[in-house]
Write a structure and sequence with these properties.
Strand content: under 5%
Number of helices: 5
Domain Carrier: 8-88
Radius of gyration: 13 Å
Structural class: mainly alpha
Keywords: Phosphopantetheine, Phosphoprotein
Organism: Neorhizobium galegae
Shape: globular
Protein name: Acyl carrier protein
Number of domains: 1
Distance between the termini: 25 Å
CATH architecture: Orthogonal Bundle
Pfam families: PP-binding
CATH superfamily: ACP-like
């Protein structure tokens, strides 16, 4: 079962994906879980940068990865959740 942070990250990613898809494609989108590969959602490096920006703003954190590093290190939704969780923990 996903925790609160995982649900928030999934919601952020889903919102970003839906904004880039038309209504038909968004309606047929499968459920997003922490195991979902970012590439399977059509998220490219630019889309990932947008998602990371949204998460930085929501949590007051800075994800210190350039786009190519992020793309190679964050392949699925769970990877994004863990990266954000680690940065939040450092802020406490």
């Amino acid at each position: 079962m996903a925790d609160e942070l995982a649900i928030e990250v999934i919601t952020t990613i889903k919102r970003r994906v839906e904004s880039e898809l038309d209504g038909i494609a968004a309606a047929s989108m499968t459920e997003i879980t922490t195991e979902t590969e970012l590439a399977s959602l059509g998220i490219d490096s630019l889309g990932l940068a947008d998602v990371l920006w949204d998460l930085e703003q929501a949590h007051g954190i800075k994800i210190e990865l350039n786009t190519s590093d992020a793309w190679s290190n964050l392949s699925n939704v769970g990877d994004v959740v863990q990266a954000v969780r680690g940065l939040i923990a450092k802020e406490v």
